[in-house]
């Protein structure tokens, strides 16, 4: 029975020794090994062996980039206004040994260093510059943190300001100022639009008046040209008619009676005018009447005898 117990104990000890000897380190993780309480080595990812009861794994360090959000911190600006600033730190452990032995808690150290650096940076700025200089604050914070945390085996990759919250009264004043600025810009844009509209309307009216005047002038010129051409054509027609009548009269060889008859036909036309209240009968009217009387008298014998008794054709 005693030998059985000794055998069981021996197997248990051997099994425990094997378990403590074989170590599997996950990817992106480093293990700090101490031998007799002192730093011995750093285990990398993979399968490794340690001496049981002599070597001890003190801590496992995550080598991935980590993101830490710090609670809002009150910071006083250069114009004595308290603002609340939230920060986010992106960092990565580059030296597991330094991160284990150089600082007790690097997370707390990074947080406190961030707060003090933020107060130093923002304390030299007024509120307006603080609200508009996020990139500048981020750059200064990263530079200071990277220099300070280098000996801790930590690299600060990025620092971001999540929010910068001024006091409620300041926010209300800023909103009123922004609203006034927007109203002012809107009024200016509206005035400029009305000005441009008035200018364009005036230009359009001027161009319309110019085109209308040009059109009227061209119309007057065309009407004058048309009237001149019409008068010229009428004058030419009248001249042609007069020439035709004159030529017809001369070719017809009219006698005195025909001319007298035409003269009587023109008398009613002369009397038609409203202004012709009085008109003068020419002294040749008696001769005209005699000729007309001869027109309507009986025709004579075509053969007549003159004073000398000679016979002639009428």
TrEMBL record:
UniProt domain Band: residue ranges: 20-178
Cross-referenced Pfam families, in alphabetical order? Band_7
Family annotation (Gene3D superfamilies): Band 7 domain
Region span, Disordered: 294-314
UniProt biased composition (Polar residues): 302-314
**Record localization:** Membrane
What is the name of the protein in this document?
A: Paraslipin
Q: What is the species of this protein?
A: Planotetraspora kaengkrachanensis
* Source organism phylogeny: Bacteria, Bacillati, Actinomycetota, Actinomycetes, Streptosporangiales
């Amino acid at each position: 029975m005693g030998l059985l117990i000794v055998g069981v104990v021996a197997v248990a000890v051997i099994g425990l020794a094997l378990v403590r000897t074989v170590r599997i380190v996950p990817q992106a993780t480093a293990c700090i090994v101490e031998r007799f309480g002192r730093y011995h080595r750093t285990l990398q990812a993979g399968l490794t062996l340690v001496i049981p009861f002599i070597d001890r794994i003190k801590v496992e360090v995550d080598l991935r980039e980590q993101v830490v959000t710090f609670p809002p911190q009150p910071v006083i600006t250069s114009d004595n206004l308290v603002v609340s600033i939230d920060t986010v730190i992106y960092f990565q452990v580059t030296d597991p040994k330094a991160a284990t032995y150089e600082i007790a808690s690097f997370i707390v150290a990074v947080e406190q260093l961030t707060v003090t650096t933020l107060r130093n940076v923002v304390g030299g700025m007024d509120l307006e510059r603080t609200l508009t200089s996020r990139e500048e604050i981020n750059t200064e914070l990263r530079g200071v943190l990277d220099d300070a945390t280098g000996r801790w085996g930590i690299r600060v990759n990025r620092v971001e300001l999540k929010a910068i919250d001024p006091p409620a009264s300041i926010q209300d004043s800023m909103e009123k100022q922004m609203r006034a600025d927007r109203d002012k810009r809107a009024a200016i844009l509206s005035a400029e639009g009305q000005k441009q509209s008035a200018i364009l309307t005036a230009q359009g009216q001027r161009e319309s008046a110019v085109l209308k005047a040009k059109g009227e002038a061209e119309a007057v010129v065309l009407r004058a040209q048309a009237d001149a051409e019409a008068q010229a054509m009428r004058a030419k027609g009248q001249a042609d008619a007069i020439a035709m009548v004159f030529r017809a009269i001369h070719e017809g060889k009219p006698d005195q009676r025909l001319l007298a008859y035409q003269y009587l036909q023109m008398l009613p036309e002369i009397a038609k005018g409203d202004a012709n209240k009085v008109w003068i009968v020419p002294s040749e009217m008696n001769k005209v009447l005699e000729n007309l009387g001869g027109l309507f008298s009986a025709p004579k014998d075509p053969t007549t005898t003159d004073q000398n008794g000679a016979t002639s054709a009428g």
